[in-house]
Amino acid sequence: MSVFKLALKFFIRELRHGEFHLLLLSLLIATGSLTSVSFLIQHINYSMNSHASQLNGAQLILKSSTAVPKSWLKKAQEDNLEFAQMQKFTSMLVFGDEFKLAQVKAVSDNFPLQGELRIIRKNELIVSKAPPGGEIWLDSRLNEQFNEYTTNTRSSVIELGESKFHVGAILQRVPGQSSSFFSIAPSAMINLTDLALTDTVQPGSKVDYLYFFSSSSADPLSSDSLKRYQKWLQDKLLPGQTLRSGVEDIKAVNASLQKAGRFLSLAAMLTLLLSAVAIAINSYQYGQKQFKNNAILLCLGCSEKNILHLELFKLFLVGLAGSLMGIIIGYFVFIGLLNLIESVLPLGTFSETTGGELHFYTLPIWTGLVSGLFLLLSLSMANLSQIRKISPMGLIRKDFLQQNFNRKWFYLMSFSGLIIISFWMTGNVQITLWFYLVLLSSVMILYFVARFVLYLVIKSGRHFQMINRLSLLNLERHKQAVLLQITTFSLIFSLLIIIFLIRTELLENWQAQFPKETPNHFVINIQSVEKQQFEDFMQQNSIKTQGLYPMVRGRLSYLNQKPIMQAVPEEARDHNALHRELNLSFDITKHNEAHVKGSQAEISIERSMAEVLNIQQGDLLGFQIGARKIEGIVTDIRVVAWDSFQPNFYIIFSPGLIEQYPMNWIASFYLNTDDQFKLNKLMQQFPGITIIEVDEILREVQLIINRVSNAIELIFVFIVVAGVLILSSSLLVTLASRMYENAVLRTLGASARQLRHYLFIEFTVVALITTLVAVVLAESASYVLYQQVFQMDYNLHPQVWLSMSIIALLLICGLGLLMVNKIFTQPANLLLNQWTE
Amino acid sequence: MLTVNSLAKIIITPNSHLNILNNINFHLQAGESMAITGVSGSGKSTLLSLLAGLDKPTSGQVKIDGQSLTKLDEEQRAALRRDKIGFIFQSFHLIPALTALDNVMLPLELKGDKNAREQAFNLLERVGLSERYEHQPLQLSGGEQQRVAIARAFAGEPEILFADEPTGNLDQLSGENVIELLFQLNQEQGTTLVLVTHDPLLARNCHRQFRLEQASLQEVMLQGTD
């Protein structure tokens, strides 16, 4: 019989006899929790991306300063992609004899592909596609100016170039509008087919051509073709053409997503750790049980190699069975979580953002399967390695085996396996490394702390009454096992404490970044001469600004004396900052991001931009401002919180260099809905300024935070449940020997009260030492996480210590006593028979 | 000392009723010893479990010292075992985590005996293991482990001792040593002894011999023994 067939036979037989039920159960929990968290993360990513697409109006946007070749659009059609077009330009709208400058958007009939174009028609808010021919839709500010005009003249026709338009609706929300704070002027929208008649776009006119692409909802395979098309386009892009997709261009949303991703990956890693602990315990126990069988096989003439193969195949089958069941359960848990999330979400639901369809993700399935098998094999490797070392006689006598078991090898293999999977799962080297570094060093230190405390407890407990002496004697005799148990439990408890602290404190802190009065309006184009008046206006109207910041428009054109396009890495040449004028600022001493050093021509640059363009400290940057060139040395690289809703800049100069160039000012402020009328007053007094409302983006960011908070809280509940299950499975494994001892004691006449008392003392000691170790470990790990990863202040949490002691006592004593309960109810011989070989 | 009336044990399986023991009756005087023999699977160990109050019969009753076990609940039976009964098992059933001395101390400690340690040590000396009192069971040979188990069984000074195949797991020499020790201690303490065995030598050492066959117990009439 081939080894594989034999393994299959053994597998089925052992499965029937419940030999690896515990191992299977822990594997099932591991892959189940991993898969469901992974499904959830995928789904959140998907729905957030999809949400961002709705914000953008499409999954992929191509922006060009000229019309793109027809072949590009034909290719999109061939690839089964949907596409819409927009031409955007600045032009004069004429109301009778009044002229208003506006940004005109001429859109194709099917705009927007995704998201909602919301308009107000006859006082009713509706969702629409592009305006019909002959209609123009105005945004609220233009509409107010227009209303003012019509009240005076009774005429309701607007002229744009050679054509006349009827005002059909008010634009309320336009997808794609939020991509840049600085490009939005009061806007109007017409149908693209009407554009030619206006004659406003002439050769040489400055027009932005926007092409929106999305995968076809009717064709599920087209999301792959969208990616292929994006790649195809990328190779063809010319200067002045940029591509953006998903959320990457919405900086505020993106920063929030990154944080969300970090929280979720941390949660996933904790789930993994919890599960791995259970698998390690159970695979160790299972391996120990197998030694005797293998000894018999060795005696019957099976070679070591065959036994090794046999065990490997069996493990593979166990891993496969456990992982597959786990994936199925994980999927259903995910569906359950999803329903729960949707019902508790305060703002919208996932199905709204995903169009009601539930995508079946393949990545979590692979994650579950590969991690399940990999975890099991890496955690069982130490057991397998023993097979070659031991003679049949030694195997029969388990004492020989236990003395020779190489724990270092076991821990090393287990730990390496875990770290590899964590890297794979989180994709975040910094978090993973810190996490394990702290964990490993803390566990080592605390193992010795636990050992010392246990020693003290046993020593001081020697003088207690008989049954306590038995408990303590037992603790002493099982010292290694008890220490392992304490370390395991304290690991689980400390992980739960860490998740709890992170969940509450980090989320609260994160949400606190958006206080009630987070700026929701930006004002640009404030001229230097108006600055004082503007500040006065704000003060008189009780509007708090976050300060005024100067802006000079300039193009980054040289790096270390070389033209910028040659100096930056090839892959960075598409960077948005190289294809447009940047807003350069200076002397923003009031700005909380400012790190400009005192001397002239020093530059502070935003970190992500510096990284992409490979700009280092000490590099010389040249800027083109109008016809003139200025230079500055990079002396500072800043981290900018793009989600702070404060004016942020890529480049900040030291004062004294760029003040001489034409500049205007930018400010941000909060205005509640009731005070919106102040905007019109502001516009009347300063007709040249542009007000940008960022309510929509702010709402999006807050929506994401709310969703992620909910998701994390649910994952926390899930992890707690997984933790309890794992705790009980590990208790069940370590309780086996206690059950035997209690059965013997019961036979010898110990009363139930005596046994309960004796077990209670033992579990209490384990629970209390566990709490102590867990709390110290959790506090130190959280301290490092707070300081290093999240840059937050740290305080101790005494209320957590108290609640943890109570939970540990209830859980360990409760579960422990519950599990051995049959000792008190079953006849003694039945108990003892279980242990008779 | 031990009285058994109409004792029966029936195991009900989904397909059938299995008659393990049927209408068992006998009486054993204090200080007497009895051996129960029979082929494997004849129900010897089940009978022993019922006699010692480790299991409940389907019908009939067992009385130890006039006290009916069937009327006692699990707790009361445990108390009876603690005060009056000793056990020796085929697979020793020592607690692996405890030393030889700790194992012998157990029944004394359960009774709350203040001199448990001293008494246990004396008993270990009596079974010839005083040198190895600190060893754990796995560090002892099978014969030595059974001697520890015998010391433990006698530690509580039981009125009646149940032994289930006490030599079943031992080689011949160790087996003979264990038998000798068992009967010596039995005589010294005047304990009533019930043992289940395959070993004819062991059975011959008992005052009375019974054979369990087809669920019923028959006393074997002894000829020419001492």
What characteristics describe this protein?
heterodimer, A: 837 residues, alpha+beta, 4 domains, eleven-stranded mixed sheet, six-stranded mixed beta barrel, 57% helix, B: 226 residues, alpha/beta, Rossmann fold, six-stranded mixed sheet, four-stranded antiparallel sheet, 7 helices, 10 strands
Structure description:
The complex is a heterodimer of chains A (837) and B (226). Chain A has 837 residues and is an alpha+beta fold. Chain A folds into four domains: 1-52 and 252-427, no CATH class; 60-245, no CATH class; 445-517 and 695-837, no CATH class; 521-693, no CATH class. In chain A, helix 14 (429-461) runs antiparallel to helix 15. Chain A is elongated. Chain A starts with a helix and ends with a helix. The relative contact order of chain A is 0.11. Chain B is 35% helix and 27% strand. Chain B is built from seven helices and ten strands. Chain B has a six-stranded mixed β-sheet with strand order 6-7-8-3-9-10, sandwiched between helices. The mean pLDDT of chain B is 86.
Helix content of chain B: 25-40%
Low-confidence stretches of chain B: none
Number of domains of chain A: 4
Strand content bin of chain B = 25-35%
Determine Rg of chain A (CA atoms, Å): 34 Å
**Rg estimate of chain B, integer Å:** 17 Å
**Overall mean pLDDT of chain B:** 86
Shape of chain B: globular
Brief characterization of the structure:
Chain A has 837 residues and is of the alpha+beta class. Chain A has 25 helices and 21 strands. Chain A is 57% helix and 17% strand.
